[in-house]
Target: thiamine phosphate synthase
Amino acid sequence: MQVDVVKTGMLPSVGIVKTLCKTLREFPVHALVVDPVMVSTSGDVLAGPSILSTFREELLPMADIITPNLKEASALLNGMQLETVDDMRSAARLLHNMGPKNVLVKGGDLPDSSDAVDILYNGHNFYELRSPRIRTRNTHGTGCSLASSIAAEVAKGYPMLSAVKVAKRFVETALDYSKEIDIGNGPQGPFDHLLRLKSHSQACHRQQPFDPSDLFLYAVTDSRMNKRWGRSIIDAVKAAIDGGATIIQLREKDAETKDFMESAKACLRICRLHGVPLLINDRVDVAIACDADGVHVGQSDMPARVARTLLGPEKIIGVSCKTPEQAEQAWVDGADYIGCGGVYPTNTKENNITVGLNGLKTVCMASKLPVVAIGGIGVSNARAVMEIRTSNLKGVAVVSALFDRECVQTETRQLHEVLLGSNIGST
Ligand SMILES: Cc1ncc(COP(=O)(O)OP(=O)(O)O)c(N)n1
Ligand SMILES: Cc1nc(C(=O)O)sc1CCOP(=O)(O)O
Model:
């Protein structure tokens, strides 16, 4: 077996350190990451002074990097006082003289520092690596995970400086992710390094599975209209839900990404309270970032197949389709529903091709997926749309008839009544 990178953790006896060094001399590895575990983040002493001379004389000279915390660096340097960043630099230089190629002195315990400062020294340059200090009691295991992450990055072939930066970012993100978890009985809890796995599985989780009847009254927001009427997107979404909207899509063409994310998160809270799914138009990144229930993509947006890979199996994906071929492709790509239009001419979307009721019917009959009709639909014509009577036409998606009006709630309620009267999907 070829071993590329070895990372050491706690080595409880002199005999074990000596055996390890002997093995490493016989079977050299590409890189050796030494976490000289002697004092844990929680302050527990994990290895006695008898081990220090073996560390200094045998193990450290073989290491590509060593990653002591302040107490370990001090122990290796016969009790040297380490209280400032300058002290850490001096310690890194002295430890480097013992033979390792790189030294990372971790300043997590540095008094009076609002940042977490680590010093990396490679014999030529010092790098001061700073990240915000995350206030949490769940820090147990951070040193070990940092060194393991460095080893993993080095094994992937990255240079030491980038390996350390990536590892530090990983630990920082994991600390932040798990900072409020109530876990463990002692003064400290473990931090949670499975964050990527968990955040992905959470991202893949939706409150409820997709129900095609959610397409019944589909409210699609428009920032320009809401601005014109002097209301926020959040107020618009609330009003639409109060009026009976069964699904919401945020279609914010002019929003800056950060603003879009913030309003999406606020809207999501409202939607979750009411059990109404919230989709994001076009922006798969925003949907992932705010854990929305899904996305709606057009023919020139990210392909549904790619969106599905990014979003996972449970999120809702809708695709705009004007033809039977597009509807077939949406099904193949793993979409959940299609939006078909424009049924009528509309001013909301420039240069939109109108397919009419016949086009809608043709697409519905070809589609294996549920369909929602869109384009120029409102109280006056929703019934005619639903009367094409194909069983997979589940509802209407509406922008201006709800949001380019003074009272969103009233308009939504009226449309809801019309749709109820049309007895959708019963044939
Ligand atoms: C339900 C629904 N159907 C169709 C569309 C149109 O989406 P797209 O083709 O991506 O065009 P834009 O909305 O981006 O202008 C939709 N948004 N919702
Ligand atoms: C966003 C959109 N997509 C369409 C399509 O045909 O795919 S029509 C349209 C605009 C719908 O707005 P209104 O309800 O104001 O007509």
Remarks:
- The pocket of LCLJCK34 (ligand 1) is lined by residues 218, 220, 249, 251, 281-282, 296-298, 301, 318, 320, 339, 341, 349, 372, 374, 397 (CB under 6 Å).
- Confidence is low (pLDDT under 50) at residues 200-206.
- The first helix runs from residue 14 to 26.
